[in-house]
Structures are given as C-alpha cells and as structure tokens.
C-alpha cells in the first residue's frame, strides 16, 4: 500500500485504536440507551436512580486494550490468534461484561450489546492490522 513502514503502522493503529474506539463507544452507548428505554417501557416506575450506574471510561479502556492486542496478534501473524480472540469474547460474555441488572430479558439484551461491541472492536482491529501490514492479504 504505502512504502513507509512507520506510516503504515501509525495509520493502522490510528484506525484500530482511534476510529475503533469512537465507533465502538457510539454504537454500544446507543444500544444500552435502547435497552434502558425498553426496560422503562416495561416498568414505567423505574427512575434514573434505579438504573444501574455505568463507569464510562472502563469499557473504553478495555476496548482500546483489546483492539491493540488483536491488532498486534494479527500483524505479527501469531498462530491461534483467532482462538484467543474468540476465547476473549466468550470470557467477556460468561463473566457478565456489560451486564447491569439480573433481569433476564435486560441481561440478554445487554449481553448482546456487549457482543456487538466486541465484534465492532474486532473489525477495527483487523482493519488496522491490514493497513499496518498490507502484505498479509492473499
């Protein structure tokens, strides 16, 4: 793609970490707003104080770190990186990443919001890795 390897690395990491963070944060934030709106439709007596509180910087930090690790695994062509990525996403779901309440319906919706966020994060990591090392494409 480009002759300068440093340029490719900066471009790849910018897409993976920068753009990936913004897009993933926006999509997951909108999904959670939708989940909480649906919960209020089912129980109009819920107040904002009864809704579980989020720590907004934590998902962003985890997303940046996972995109960095995914990008490096892909760029370095580490064997079994796909298995690691799949296991990481599974571990996030099993441990209740993005779970805010124990209500079953809301739990399923927030779990899938977290899964969608992880998939978007992974897509940006792969795109960043391809921009970093275009020779990896067949």
Tag the structure with descriptive keywords.
138 residues, mainly alpha, 4 helices, 72% helix, elongated
N- to C-terminal distance: 13 Å
Helix and strand sequence: HHHH
Shape: elongated
Report Rg.
17 Å
What fraction of the residues are assigned to beta strands by DSSP?
A: under 5%
Total beta strands: 0
Average of per-residue pLDDT values = 78
What portion of residues is helical?
A: over 70%
| Largest sheet data | none
Helix count, per DSSP? 4
User: Segments where pLDDT lies below 50 for 5+ residues?
Assistant: none
Integer count of domains: 1
Helix and strand composition category: mainly alpha
Describe the protein's topology.
Elements: H1 5-42, H2 57-75, H3 81-94, H4 104-132
Helix pairs in contact: 1-2, 1-4, 2-4, 3-4
């Amino acid at each position: 793609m480009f002759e300068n390897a440093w340029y490719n690395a900066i471009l790849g990491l910018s897409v993976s970490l920068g753009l990936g963070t913004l897009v993933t944060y926006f999509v997951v934030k909108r999904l959670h707003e939708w989940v909480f709106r649906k919960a209020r439709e089912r129980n109009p007596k819920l107040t904002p104080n009864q809704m579980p509180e989020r720590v907004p910087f934590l998902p962003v930090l985890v997303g940046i770190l996972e995109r960095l690790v995914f990008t490096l695994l892909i760029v370095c062509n580490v064997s079994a990186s796909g298995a690691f990525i799949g296991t990481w996403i599974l571990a996030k779901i099993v441990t209740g990443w993005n779970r805010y309440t124990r209500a079953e319906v809301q739990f399923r919706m927030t779990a899938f919001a977290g899964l969608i966020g992880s998939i978007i994060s992974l897509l940006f990591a792969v795109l960043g890795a391809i921009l970093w090392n275009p020779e990896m494409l067949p």
